[in-house]
């Protein structure tokens, strides 16, 4: 997808495209199907779509995968995420009827439908992650219908972050990373795979900072900041500097306590097994030199703005509405 050429303001959306989340436990496990959370992108598209032109990219130029578990109705409840999750869990313990379940949650169904419409409009046909043993019963039903609804859409192409950096550096190419007002990266577990240990993500973050482009990261996406230790020279060599310009700033992300809940009680649970990923994001960011602030209640909303480096982070789907509203106040009026 080429960068827009109109006179409208521009935003860059970098979507994680990893489709498999490795697990360290159970031993020998091949990993679980994963993707990105639409809810953490769609509100941005809704808020800014009438005035902004979007450029969509992925770390390696792959088509991103929708995380089916991120489409559970409770994920679309924003500030009411906690109560919606409790209600949904209770409703699925015994006999479950999907039509009754949806009829009791019309506002959440309407929001999800509108967000899926935005995905079809902007992103085309996308693969969808597999349902897991711990997946919400309603999204298991949704998955087949969702795939059918996208089968006749065109499959878009997505430039890689590396390609965008090369174009930015090419004096004969009009593409300019500095022309974007902001870059937004949604979460889901996919960023844990392709946003980390990625020199081109690091180069993008620094190029954005140097050009006063606001950086917007939510949920698992702040793990991208662990790649800020890298710069990529014009000759392609990678330079590592732990004392980079972002070092020591405040960030927030999904808390370890929230991840442990998902691993032991949520959709990543494997019955009868202890489940662990390779790392926890908040710990990885602390190890990378950041001041990581999370909430005691993992479903509470946390949004942090670091003006000196123009970095906006928030801690999960419950924060997306507040995150988007804050982003709006920080952007120039056009």
Automatic annotation (TrEMBL):
Gene3D superfamilies assigned: 3.40.50.880
InterPro entries found in the cross-reference section: Class_I_gatase-like, Prot/Nucl_acid_deglycase
Domain of life: Bacteria
Identification of the protein by name: DJ-1/PfpI domain-containing protein
Organism of this sequence: Streptomyces doebereineriae
